[in-house]
Amino acid sequence: MTDAVNDMPGRGSAYPRLNSTLRHALLIAVCIVMIYPILWMLSGSLRPASELFGGEAGLIPSQVTLSAYPDGWFGLQVTFGRFFANSLIISVLATIGNVLAASLVAYAFARLRFAGQNFWFALMLGTLMLPYHVTLIPQYVLFRELGWVNTWLPLIVPKYFAVDAFFIFLMVQFFRGIPRELDEAARMDGCSAWRIYRKIILPLSMPVLATAAIFSFIWTWEDFFGPLIYISEMENYTVQLGLRSFIDSSGTSSWNELFAMSILSLVPIFLIFLFFQRLLIEGIATTGMKR
Predict the structure, then answer these.
(1) DSSP state, 152?
(2) Which range, 42-56, 122-136, 151-165, has the best average confidence (pLDDT)?
(3) CATH assignment of 80-287, given 3.40.80.10, 2.40.50.100, 1.10.3380.30, 1.10.3720.10?
(4) CA 288, CA 46: separation in Å to the nearest integer?
(5) What is the mean pLDDT of the chain?
(6) Fewer CB within 10 Å, N- or C-terminus of the chain?
(7) Given pLDDT bands bounded at 50, 70 and 90, which one contains residue 103?
(8) Which of 162, 158, 177 is nearest to 110 (CA)?
(9) 85 close to 78: Cβ distance less than 8 angstroms
């Protein structure tokens, strides 16, 4: 009798469909809550300045205007395009340095053998728990003595010395999943460690390299504290410092222009995730898995 009921058309598939509908409804509700601030910021960039805080708080503006975008783009002493170019240069160079340096160090930890390997690996992991503010003053003194203050060098050069332990650990876990038989076969053919790294490890590690590159670019693009400490001239400002320039301590802040430029500052991040999300998800999902 039970089997007959379960075999009725549509009876067995009703509950999975209901569960799927409830899950999707919950995800949509959470998604709306998360993107609501962005939608409100977009709506604020399309409102006149007089309606931002004096009118209704809904998402649909009573009067749509695009004046905040040209006003924000050309409203400072330096055009906002200059800030975009500065952030793009810093982010690209820092990303290249992060990926190259972290992959080299990770390759040494994961595939080579040297004295004190476990000690140095544990020390490297320990730096993950070291707050950035602890090293801020010594770094600033060092860069000031080198004459790097008010330049981009403090934001770029350290990335070429594998200072981000997170990316090293991420790549170590991925490299350990690559079969060592490939290394042994390459050594039998006369390959050096450097050639194994270039010809075998890197081509097989594109997902984790892409993941590290995406995260590095996003974190550098969104960095506010580093440029705030080292950069003082507006011509060298990044996007984040440019956004801060719209906030006036005297109380005359240009909020709608700030919202407009904030929306534009999210476009590169959105495009990167949109085009490289497959590599990003694959790199995170396969890190540490044996293949």
Answers:
(1) S
(2) 151-165
(3) 1.10.3720.10
(4) 46
(5) 85
(6) N
(7) very high
(8) 177
(9) no
Q: What residues does each domain of the chain span? A: 16-65, 80-287
> What is the Cα 190 distance to its own chain's centre?
39
Q: How far is CA 3 from the centre of its chain?
A: 53
Task: Yes or no: say if 183 and 84 are a contact pair by the CB < 8 Å rule.
Answer: no
pTM: 0.84
- Which two three-digit tokens encode residue 205? 């590690």
Cα→Cα distances 164→1, 124, 171, 179, 246, Å: 64, 9, 11, 26, 32
Q: What tokens does 125 get?
A: 């992991």
Task: Please measure the distance between the N-terminal and C-terminal CA atoms of the chain and give it in whole angstroms.
Answer: 47
For residues 129 and 133, give the distance between their C-alpha atoms in angstroms, rounded to a whole number. Answer: 12
Contact (Cβ atoms closer than 8 angstroms) between residue 237 and residue 83: yes
User: How far is the C-alpha of 10 from the C-alpha of 280, rounded, in Å?
Assistant: 38
- pLDDT of 2 reads 47
Which residues touch 150 (CB under 8 Å, ≥6 apart)? 230, 231, 232, 233, 236
- Between CA 80 and CA 245 the distance in angstroms is 11
User: What DSSP state is assigned to residue 62?
Assistant: S
Instruction: Write out the two tokens for 17.
Output: 């469909």
Identify the CA nearest to 266 among candidates 35, 30, 31: 35
Q: Token pair for residue 191?
A: 């390959």
**Torsion 142-146-148-154 (CA) sign:** negative
What distances in angstroms separate CA 22 from CA 15, 26, 27, 122, 271, one per listed residue? 11, 6, 9, 45, 30
Query: In which residue are the tokens 């009876």 written?
Result: 11
Question: What would the pLDDT profile of 260-280 be if each residue is shown by its tens digit?
Answer: 999 999 999 888 888 877 777
